[in-house]
Design goal:
The protein is an alpha/beta fold. The protein has 20 helices and 10 strands. The chain has 4 domains: about 45 residues, no CATH class; about 70 residues, no CATH class; about 140 residues, 3-Layer(aba) Sandwich (Leucine Aminopeptidase, subunit E, domain 1), CATH 3.40.220; about 150 residues, Rossmann fold (3-Layer(aba) Sandwich). The strands form 2 sheets. A 5-stranded mixed beta sheet has the order 2-3-1-4-5. Strands 8-7-6-9-10 form a 5-stranded parallel beta sheet, covered by helices on one side. β6, α16 and β7 form a beta-alpha-beta unit. It is elongated and about 100 Å long.
Length: about 475
């Protein structure tokens, strides 16, 4: 009680004075111990001393009446106290638990149980909805706000702010599924690593995996505000191994399609497909949904667009010839088509003539001569600029050590770390927009945007891309 009193008004404004000149040694020790356990001072007491006394009296009266009638018991005391605290906490949680249709179907219930919206009106207006738990007494006393139930219906409907950007991810594996804020917030705030305390929880997480697979829909993992824009991360309820099961392909695409259509209805501007959600074999990198819904207003993109722009920006000026591995991937295809339009000869390392010819036909007739298929690294011995889109073995790496410029398309850390021109690319249409009918807009990756915009010279003309 003393700790609660010292942490509440009017002592709060006294600051260090209350520690030095007001409290005695014993009280300082007591308050400090509470404050050390929980850094939030409010946890030492959520109410004033008078409120504690009044609430204690209100809780004691019904129990005293039951005891006087010979119906009191220890179980009744525990049940009443727990119910009282639950209802009080529910009224302050700001989350609507009761569906609006329940009160429309059974109108008398609105006078028997209150809702968080009902109690919020009391805290905001302070002239209505005084009663805890039972609005019936406000009705009898004439202090019931008539808009309580309409406001409750709107809040229950979830009229939330629509995000500007949605990152559509998926679960990696059972162990990684526990690395999310709503499971273990502290663990999720650190880089993922397999910890010993996760092993006993693995069977439970495995059970949830089957439940999610059977019943769940796309859900929100986290969100953040950046430069005045709301960004959300959604998860398709599928794990990494699901994407390699042939019979699971249609179900995954259905989940992604529903998520895109949901984002469309919400007014989301950009949806980015992450990881295996953009697998070429699964849905053509997203083209399946764009072709199926040609009138989509939401822009469907993926990270390869920005990667292609960064790689193109790293190619030295005056380059006339480039060697590429991984040239028939989505990323390699976009880069190759852009470079051949710039009259740069591209040696595309691939054993698949069919995939090479398919990409070559997408180029303009006058530019197709700049795309050349090669099948051996020796063909590029005289080429000074390599774009590496696949893993190089140690032997292969030793063979190219003498080359001047090597860019690894899968590792952008060094590129982003020392390149001041990347910021300009974040405002421009990405190079991968040449990749067929895929629905893209000007990709602005605000997470990588820096304060050096003014000094970054333009390197790629959006009109050319």
């Amino acid at each position: 009680m003393g700790a609660a009193f010292l942490s509440s008004w009017p002592w709060d404004n006294l600051g260090i004075f209350k520690y030095v000149n007001v409290t005695d040694v014993a009280m300082r020790r007591r308050f400090s111990s509470v404050n050390a356990v929980c850094p939030v001072r409010a946890s030492a007491g959520f109410a004033t001393p008078l409120e504690h006394l009044v609430l204690g009296l209100l809780m004691a009266l019904p129990l005293a009446g039951a005891c006087a009638a010979g119906l009191g018991s220890v179980g009744l005391a525990f049940a009443y106290v727990l119910s009282f605290d639950f209802l009080r906490a529910m009224g302050h949680c700001n989350v609507e638990l009761f569906p609006g249709g329940l009160f429309r179907s059974l109108p008398f219930l609105r006078y028997l149980i209150y809702t968080p919206t009902y109690h919020t009106i009391h805290h905001t207006g302070k002239k209505a909805n005084f009663c805890l738990f039972m609005p019936l007494f406000d009705r009898l006393g004439g202090t019931l706000d008539p808009e309580s139930w309409e406001l409750q219906r709107k809040n229950r409907a979830g009229m939330d702010e629509a995000p500007d950007f949605v990152f559509l991810a998926h679960v990696v594996d059972v162990m990684q599924s526990m690395h999310v804020p709503f499971v273990m917030r502290t663990f999720a705030s650190t880089p993922f690593a397999v910890r010993a305390f996760l092993l006993p929880l693995w069977p439970i997480a495995l059970l949830f995996m089957f439940m999610v697979w059977a019943w769940s829909k796309t859900f929100i993992i986290s969100y953040y505000h950046l430069r005045g824009k709301l960004h959300q991360i959604w998860a398709v309820p599928r794990y990494g191994f699901h994407y390699f099961l042939p019979f699971a392909k249609d179900g995954i695409n259905d989940q992604i399609e529903l998520a895109i259509l949901r984002a469309e209805r919400m007014g989301v501007k950009v949806v980015s497909l992450a990881a295996l959600n953009k697998n070429e074999a699964l849905n053509g990198g997203g083209t399946l949904f764009v072709n199926k819904h040609p009138d989509l207003r939401v822009r469907v993109v993926h990270g390869n667009t920005l990667t292609a722009a960064v790689i193109l920006n790293e190619i030295p000026k005056g380059t006339t010839e480039v060697f590429m591995t991984g040239a028939t991937s989505k990323l390699g295809r976009a880069i190759a088509l852009y470079l051949c339009r710039k009259k740069i000869r591209v040696m595309m390392m691939t054993l698949s003539t069919e995939r090479f010819q398919k990409i070559q036909k997408e180029a303009a007739a006058e530019d197709q001569q700049y795309l050349v298929q090669v099948t051996k690294f020796q063909s590029a011995e005289q080429c000074k600029t390599w774009i590496v889109g696949k893993w190089l073995s140690p032997r292969e790496q030793r063979n190219v050590l003498a080359l001047i410029h090597i860019r690894h398309a899968g590792d952008l850390c060094s590129v982003l770390g020392d390149n001041a021109e990347v910021s300009t690319l974040l405002h421009q249409t990405c190079a991968a927009d040449v990749a067929g009918p895929f629905n893209r807009s000007k990709l602005q990756n605000n997470a990588l945007k820096r304060d050096y915009d003014a000094k970054a010279p333009p390197s790629l003309d959006p009109k050319e891309i």
